[in-house]
Structure formats: structure tokens, C-alpha cells
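Chain X:
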Amino acid sequence: MLHQDDLKWIAKTSTELNTVLQQIARYADLAKRQKGDHDYIDQLNQQVEIATQAAQALLNRVMSMILENTSGKTLSARVPAATSSAPGADLAGEAEDSTEGRVPMITPEVAMLNPDGARELVLIVDDEPEIAEFASTILAEEGYKVIVARDGFEALKIFQQIHREIGLIILDFFLPVMDGDAVFEELKAINPGVDVVLSSGFAEQNKIGAMLAQGLRGFIPKPYTREKLLEQVRSTLDAPRRQTR
């Protein structure tokens, strides 16, 4: 059986392969628009499409294996039962719909900034230390509880454990191993009602559009100011949820 580090390496490699193939496809499309006979470009596009699908399938399969390895008995051993302090509490009812007045269940290895904050818990997923520190400090100063994840896998592991406690996720688009759109799909698989705001200096408009159609709550371009960050966070948390298919 493959070690989890091996699985992560495979996932990282397949993601890089997929990115390169997408770039090749773009260049091939540009060449196709030039004058002349470009039948070989059509063939190249077909092969690139096949390879892209294969790489994506590999990534999806590996991700499923990794998520399975980080769930189940591992999580149950680390996360206290939600009913331990209130026997008979209904996880599927009020506890799932509201985080007000509750103390988030955090494992020892997950650091929370401003754990006694009066406002919602925000998960920041960003591999740029300066931006993560900037955003987390601002939110903590405004009374939010904050957790920072450095990549998609760390974010998914945290979300699996305490997704009922997280009010909002600020998700970077370009991340190590897996990009934001892939992380978003996995978050939705865990909790279809997850509230996510995408953050990026550059992202393909078609991918942002697809994420919005799937329930993305907003987009905040980088670099952002203190005022813009706080405005986006508060407006997203206060806005009614849209019904998505």
C-alpha cells in the first residue's frame, strides 16, 4: 500500500502534468488560427485532450484515496464528539445550521488565531505567508476566529473535522498540489452548503464562472486592502444563500 506522502507526490505530479497539457492546448489553439494547413495541430489537440482527461482521472482517484486515509477512525480519535457536553444533541438539526455561541472543536495540531473571538470562524487557504498573515491578522483584530491552511489537502483535512463550525472559507485559486477549483469541488462534496470566497491575482474567467454556478459566494482580487477584505467577508456572511443545482 502506498504511503500518504507517495500519494501526495503522485497527486502533485499529475496536477503539474495537467497544467502543462492545458498550456499546450492553448498554444495549439493559437497555432491553429494561423493561415495554412494545420491538420497536425488538430491531431495534437485530440491527443492533448485525451492526456488531460487521463491526468485529471488520476488526480481524482488519488485524492479520494488520500481523503479516505485522513478520515474515519483518525478523525474520530482526534475530534471530541459533539454530543459529549450535551447528551442527545441533534447534529443534523440546529447544531449544523448555527455556530453562534459555540466553541469550535479543534484538534491540537490545528492552530486558531483569536479562539475567543465573538465573530464567525474563517478558514483562510493560501500558500503565500505574507497574504495569509495579512488577512488572518486583520480578521482576528475585527473579532473573527481564524485558521490558516497552506494548501488544499490541509484545508480539506481541517474542513472534514470541523466543517459545521466554519462560517466562511477564503480560498486562493493557485495552490500547491491542487488548484482552488479542485479544492472547491471537494469542499462541496463534504458540505454542499459551504460558503467560499475565491481570492486570486489571476484566474481564468471560465473557471470562476463555473465555480459561481456551483455556489461560489464571491471573488476578491489580489492584492486586496483591509477595507475590501472586511467588506467582502461581512457581506458574504450576511447575504442569504443562493439555491444551487
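Chain Y:
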Amino acid sequence: MLRGIDDGDPAVLDVIEPPAIGPGAGYTKEDLARDLGIEPVDRALPRAVSAYADAFTGSFWQETERAAGEHAG
């Protein structure tokens, strides 16, 4: 598992799906704008949405790797 995560092996990465984020999880770009304290029409919002999604997914995989390593002992 750990090697597959490190290598980006689709056989491993496709088995575990990161939790939903965004509209599918009931969290919209308007929600993010509110949380960031910016207006929903702010031109920076699309980049913020992308950065937030990337950070969320990256954190998910880091935690998954940490938990797998802890489990492997």
C-alpha cells in the first residue's frame, strides 16, 4: 500500500477514493468565498477553489499514507 501511494500506482490509488469535497459534499464555491471572507464574484475565487481542492486531496493522501505506515508498524 505504502509503495503504491509513493509510486502513484493506479491499482492502489483507485482503490481508495478521497472523500467528496465541493458541491457533491454540500460545500459550494460560495461557501468557500464566505469562509475566506471574499465576495463570490471575486476574480480570485476560481484559483482559490482549485487550491482548496488540491490541498484537501493532498492532505487526504498524506493522512492515508501516515495511517497505513502506522498500521504496517
